[in-house]
Amino acid sequence: LTGLANLMQDVLWCFSQVKGTIDVGVAEADIISTVEFNHSGELLATGDKGGRVVIFQREQESKNQPHRRGEYNVYSTFQSHEPEFDYLKSLEIEEKINKIRWLPQQNAAYFLLSTNDKTVKLWKVSERDKRPEGYNLKDEDGRLRDPSMITVLRVPVLRPMDLMVEATPRRVFANAHTYHINSISVNSDYETYMSADDLRINLWNFEITNQSFNIVDIKPANMEELTEVITAAEFHPHHCNTFVYSSSKGTIRLCDMRAAALCDRHAKFFEEPEDPSNRSFFSEIISSISDVKFSHSGRFIMTRDYLTIKVWDLNMENRPIETYQVHDYLRSKLCSLYENDCIFDKFECVWNGSDSVIMTGSYNNFFRMFDRNTKRDVTLEASRENSKPRAVLKPRKVCVGGKRRKDEISVDSLDFGKKILHTAWHPAENIIAVAATNNLYIFQDKVN
Amino acid sequence: QEMEDKVISPEKVEEAKLKARYPHLGQKPGGSDFLRKRLQKGQKYFDSGDYNMAKAKMKNKQLPTATPDKTEVTGDHIPTPQDLPQRKPSLVASKLAG
Questions:
Q1: Could you say which residues of chain A have pLDDT below 70?
Q2: A92 — contact with chain B (CB < 8 Å)?
Q3: InterPro entries per the record (chain A) (predicted)?
Q4: φ, ψ at A358 (rounded to 5°)
Q5: Among all residues of chain B, which has the CA nearest to that of A54?
């Protein structure tokens, strides 16, 4: 079913829902900083700069309304991280949630990892729909009963109650990162996970919070010699010994944990050769990889740098097999993008369930999809104007110069304050979640 | 003699613009200084007192002023939970959950 629907010309994306408020001035805490579906797609989690996590659950599809696919409604929300102060360095530690990663579901409860710059937490989200009633020593309000008044012994029974969803922190993995955590990744063994900061990567066991193994360390002995930092890292989806990490110099290293305890020597090194005559002041900055993702198949990796998305075959290190231009028109705007810091924006990228389509965000609340098979691409917009239920999204086009057609927008009119850095794709269906600053948009393909 | 058509890449044009505006810009943009600045992100305070005062200022802006009903309990007796002013929830729920 998904194979047919993945051809770009057959997929019409429609507005489904939008979460969040329309504020004239957006509070910094409300800015969404991460979005992630769980493995079944039943749950969708968001994290924000205020350290809060909101989990949406897909409602059961109603037989009465077959044209309406299950909608996502709030399931649970909690404060994951709070601002802290590093007394040693006199630096504030932001509560912003950098990443959320779900664990595969193994029982009735849901588990996720959430991280800020310094601390990773394992959260358990579980439902309670029964409560015990008829205690002997306390009454229904919890007040202790006078023991001398108790003459009969009874067995408490479980009675149904209104559904309550509780989130509890089960593990706190702290004090293992000197630098800022940019990635977390759950291993396919479901026993370990990794956390990566600018210079180091640590391996954790879910059960053990007071120890972690350092598996990558690129800190030079002399910080003056620092030339690159780690920007993202991820475990292979099936091989629990393999992971990749990307760098600010546009390279990717694949490491095998069986080779050595400290994976400072890569097993594979992915780098695209650069024409030295093309080199400019901006070259290294725009080649910095902001996100790296394995395909679901585990055969490819996708990397996002400032202007492009590249797909690499794990078996070919010397160049990517595919390169997609996200917004090449920005090449002639690099000077002002450097001055307003936009050139340092970290865009993420995602695969669809069958690895046939990839998606990433851009500016002006635009996001882009590339079909790897048909080589077609489309630009869509997340905006309140296109938010009528089931309204089909119209493709957008940026005009580079010269004559601007009626529906096009010129590069100079793009709103660089409206950036889509975080998106997510349902693991099996054509449902996507797009974070536009403080709003979360959910789009689905048109159901015939 | 052949004249070569030289097309200057848009990147090099942008670089020239930047260098014109900031002539003292470092030779190695991706090098040490730039990276080290990245490693130390986050606002620096003088000390924890400075930090707590800055946080208190922000909170006062957001929340209404505390009611003066609860008189201070000092000296006479050991305060009980009922005597202490109610702790205001310092963190607001996400608007996505609204």
A1: 1-10, 64-68, 448
A2: yes
A3: PP2A_PR55, PP2A_PR55_CS, WD40/YVTN_repeat-like_dom_sf, WD40_repeat_dom_sf, WD40_rpt
A4: -120, 155
A5: B97
Segment (H or E) for A120: strand A120-133
| Domains recognised in chain A with CATH numbers | 17-125+172-445 (2.130.10.10)
Best mutation target among A32, A200, A338, A440 (most B Cβ atoms within 10 Å) is: A338
In angstroms, the CA A366 to CA A415 distance is 10
Assess B59–A contact: CB distance below 8 Å, yes or no.
no
Is A89 part of the contact surface with chain B (CB cutoff 8 Å)?
A: yes
Measured between CA atoms, the residue of chain B closest to residue A84 is B51
Residue B29's pLDDT band (boundaries 50, 70, 90)? low
Radius of gyration of chain B (CA): 29
Q: Do A90 and B10 touch (CB under 8 A)?
A: no
Classify residue B55: in a domain, yes or no.
no
| Residue B13 in tokens | 């044009």
A333 touches chain B (CB under 8 A): yes
Residues 6 or more apart whose CB falls under 8 angstroms from that of A171 comprise: A121, A122, A206, A207, A209
SS3 B97: helix
Is the CB of B19 less than 8 angstroms away from the CB of A281? yes
Tell me the ipTM for this assembly.
0.73
Are A335 and B15 inside 8 Å of each other by CB? yes
- Report the relative pairing of strands A291-294 and A268-270 from DSSP bridges: unpaired
User: Could you give the 3-state DSSP secondary structure of residue B59?
Assistant: helix
Is A300 in contact with A313 (CB distance < 8 Å)?
Answer: yes
Neighbours of A41 (CB within 10 A): 18
Query: Does any domain span residue B94?
Result: no
For residue B43, the number of C-alpha atoms closer than 13 Å in the C-beta half-sphere is: 13
| Model pLDDT, residue A396 | 95
Residue in the structure block whose two tokens are 């990663």? A101
What is the reported pTM? 0.88
Q: Where in the sequence is the domain holding B33, given as residue range(s)?
A: 7-42
What is the phi/psi pair of residue A411, to 5°?
-55, -40
pLDDT in tens, B88-98: 444 678 999 87
Tell me the CA end-to-end span of chain B in Å, nearest whole number: 73
CB-based contact A48 B94, cutoff 8 Å: yes
Q: Render pLDDT for A126-156 as a digit per residue (tens, 0 to 9).
A: 999 999 998 998 887 878 888 888 899 999 9
CB A121 within 8 A of CB A209: no
Q: Is A19 on the interface with B (CB under 8 A)?
A: yes
Domain-embedded: residue B21 = yes
| CB proximity list for B80: less than 8 A, separation 6 or greater | none
Give chain B positions within 8 Å (CB) of A288: 30
Is the CB of B26 inside 8 Å of chain A's CB atoms?
no
Instruction: Report the gap between the CA of A373 and the closest CA in chain B (Å).
Output: 30
Over the range A371-393, which residues count as b (16 or more CB within 10 Å of their CB) and which as e? bbeeeebbbbbbbeebeeeeeeb
Rounded CA separation B17/A338 (Å):
11
Task: Compute the radius of gyration of chain A from its Cα atoms.
Answer: 24
